[in-house]
Amino acid sequence: FMVLLVVFVINQCGSPLDPTVDVLGLPDGVKLVFLDIGLGMIIFTCILGQLTTQVNASHCMIDFINNYFALFTLYTAMAVEFSGVMHSSYLIQNILSVASGKPIQSNEEPKSGFTFVFFWARVLMSLAILGFCLAVTLSALFNGQTMMAVKYPNVPNGVSVFLFFFFMAIVGMLEGMQIAFFAVAKLPAEERGTSFFGRKTCDLLFKGNGENLPGFMIGRQLTVVFSFFLVASITGLNITPGEGENIFGISDGAQAFLNYGFHGAVITTILASITWQLAASAFPMAFLNNPVTYILLCIALFLEFTGLCAGAWVLARVEKKVQGLQYDEVYVGT
Q1: Which end of the chain, C or N, has fewer beta carbons within 10 A?
Q2: Mean pLDDT, range 3-16, rounded to an integer
């Protein structure tokens, strides 16, 4: 949720308010790609905000968490979880556990008494928040009160609604694919795919020594960030507080808060990320056998092949040098 909220706020900070404004004398076509569609901000966020740190964190985990900011991030994430905003995800987890026949593995004691009531009260609160966020988003989309109406005024409101659910599904598939791929990575080759597209997906992903798996992770990251920014643009509200157009007549303070993208982050986290991850962990073969999985895998590998995010490797070396990060083997041995 925190990652998505930051992405949605970045979109608010970097989105052009007027597509007709001159920027560095760039042609309209270049401005369309880098500013209106947001390719510049997408690559900037993907490389500096995600891939660079992920490259170092994968090999320097001890140094990466050995600072107060990592501790602050952990406590903030725990506070968000405790608040119950995302607790509807646990309901989805229980439903999928029953559907798949796989019991939930947990070291926690069974909930009882006040703990039981407090947990399910937060689940109900989370469902209410999710419902309100969906109502805000759909109402704004149908009334042309989102940033889509600013960036792409020629796109009908109905098409904006379709694009909202379409890119949510793309994000969900990519999130689920990651879980499904790692779930079957250790299975024998003959057990990985049970259909034509399942076998083609596994053959492509694990070709050779599995070199396409990290390539998929990079291409997937770029595709996910691209979809995040598009969803942020679609759900971002274009309502100025104090002008009498507040959605559902809420207060100016509440409208200003929603303008940061909170509602979009809640919807995307629950419906386009966590739900699909839980579904993939319960039914990994269903994801592998889906032809859409094979198509998205090819797209992700192509994006990695283009080298759009190759700069992350260079920046990771610079960051490692500046921060003095050491490999984990320095502390724990081989």
Answers
A1: C
A2: 72
